[in-house]
Amino acid sequence: MLTFEDECRLARNVAFLAYAQEDPNCIPAVCVEQDVRRVALNIRLATNSGTQLLKNALAGLQKIFDLMAAGNETWPLEEHIFTLIIEMCSERILTRLGLASRKTTAGRKQKQPFVRALEGVRALIEAAAKTDDTEMSESKQGFLAGAREVSKSVTRWEDHRSIESLKGIVAAICHFKDSTNLDRILASIPDTQLVPTAKVSIKNKVNKVSRYRELARWFSRRARDNAAYRQLQALQINLPERFHGREPCATPKIPLFIETINLATFPEIYKTKTVKRMYNILQTTAPAADAQFRQRLSKTLGESKIHAEVQLAYFYELNKDTIPLMPRAVCSSKDACWLCNIFVDAHGKMFTPRCHGVLYPGWRQPHIPGSSLTDSIVAQMAARLRRQVAESVRALLQRGERTVYPQPNESTLTMLSQSLST
Description:
InterPro entries: OTT_1508_deam-like
Strand order of the largest sheet: 3-2-1-4
Number of helices: 14
Helix content: 55-70%
Pfam family, one: OTT_1508_deam
């Protein structure tokens, strides 16, 4: 029924909508089951936390799927789906636009409203035009016209604060994206006037807010062209209580970490000297490192979460005898973290499209005593971690300073579909 690419695309699109309320601690992931006998698709969802948010997402998705099942009886289907998407995702859209406060992790500031950033670009373009003898290009004129329409739509929303006025904002931004060469316009502004990170942020906001309008079109056309999309069901996974239990652990000791340095292949005679140099570079001491390690591990053991991708993989392992056709992909509303990515690799039966590379200390495996699958995955992941630590130690000692990595964009969009234009 679905090609591998179509299965991935459907899972990614549903995951995007499923993150309907702002909560960085409640990230959903999705798998698509194909029921060939019934010509139907089961959409399985999981989150790392937040039961109520998951229930809200399931209910919102099922409304959309029920509408798709009705087909031409609810014509125009695309517009009705668009309304349901905005109703379901209104909180998330408003936080993306900076029109509602968002939950942030410690140390992260609230970003300025999108419309204010867009008006800032308008002002820069208009100021440049006043000092330039040449006539303003059509692309810049189109940008200014589109930006004004977006600003007007935000003003209307501020007056009415309704679903219809929020639909107007999303539609205006989507039209702005389709009718403007945003990359060229932003590239024409000197970095001294608009820093590169601000340019990336504007483009990111435009693409993500537009996606809500684009998905209404995408889902309506899939329902029109493929009977399987008229038989979609949103389902929550159910895992045994023991799955969420925590494994008892002995008191951690810093030598467990130091032993890992041996994998960096330093001669044994220099091991003590190497460890001391590492502490000097990190501006710490053995007792301080020991205390920090104990504190971090204690917090991880008590507060860590089983990410949604991991839950889905184990759900299908536990139910492989009752589900005829297993999913080939697992997709989250964000790119997979580093540990989820190597987990999926070690599991070896699913694909995840992207990895943002961040290693979260609050990640954990499920506690399933006696599971050969768990033992195999743990062994492979531990080997990958040891190699990564060894490489990091080598880099630290060669550079003589800590490497500071920029914060990656943890949520990226892929091309939706070539068929949007047909």
